[in-house]
Write a structure and sequence with these properties.
Elements: E1 2-8, E2 11-18, H1 50-60, E3 65-69, E4 75-82
Antiparallel strand pairs: 1-2, 2-4, 3-4
Length: 95
């Protein structure tokens, strides 16, 4: 697993890369949907909510989330957040 960060146009891009099973990019749009899985539960644990939660949190703070992958060659999940501190989140704006 590789973890990285870089500054890009006033944002910080964080990335997490692995060399696992990866995924077919034709299905990349499904990765961030709630209860969406690209692999069967007999192959990997989970119910398909992790990346949807990540996207909701990152979007709430003004960022974006992307994924790239290749079957059998791993995947990279990247997200951006503003480089400056975001305004305080109140209970009404809680994720």
């Amino acid at each position: 697993i590789e973890i990285g960060a870089e500054s890009v146009h006033g944002m910080v891009r964080y990335s997490v890369k692995d060399n696992g099973v990866g995924f077919n990019m034709a299905h990349a749009d499904r990765l961030f949907g709630i209860f969406q899985r690209l692999h069967g539960s007999d192959q990997f644990d989970g119910i398909g909510i992790g990346l949807s939660i990540v996207k909701r949190i990152v979007t709430r703070f003004g960022g974006t989330v992307t994924a790239t992958g290749q079957e059998g060659a791993g995947a990279t999940i990247s997200f951006t957040l503003p480089a400056s501190a975001p305004p305080a989140v109140t209970d009404a704006g809680a994720v």
